[in-house]
Amino acid sequence: MLQATQRHGIQLREERRRNDDVVQTLTGRVQAAGRTIEGQQVTIAALRHEVHGLEGDRTSLQGALRDRDRTISSLRTTVQKQEVELGSLRGELGSLREDLAWLQDDSAAGHHLPHRVQAELEAVGAAAGSEVLDLRTLETVRGVLPNYEGDLRRA
What we know:
Layout: H1 2-103, H2 115-128, H3 135-144
C-alpha cells in the first residue's frame, strides 16, 4: 500500500506538472490576447478620433459646396440675363449697321438733307424758274427744318 501511495503521489506530481505547463501556456495565450486587445483598443480609439475629424471636415465641405452651388446658380442667372441683353444689343447693332449703310448709300446723292426736304427744294427751285438753288438758301433750310431721318429706326 505504501508503494501504491507513492505511485499515486508520483502520478499526481506529474499530472500537476503537466497541468502547470498547460496553465502556463494558457496564461501566456491569455496575456498575448490581452496585449492584442489593448493594441486594438488603441487602434480603435485612434480611428474613432480620425472618423470624428473626417466627419467635421465633411460637414464643412458640405457647407462650402452649398455656398458654391448658390454662387453657381447666381452666376447662371446673371449669365442668362446678360445673354438676353447681349441679344438685344446685337439686334440694335444690326439695326444701327443698316441705318449706317442707308446713310452711306450713294443714292442719297451725298446731301445731308433729308430726301423729302431735298425734293421740296427742287420743286421750289423749279417753280421759281431757276435750276440751281443758292447755297445760302440750302444752308438756311438745313438750319430751319428738322432732320427726322437721323431718328428713323428700321423695323
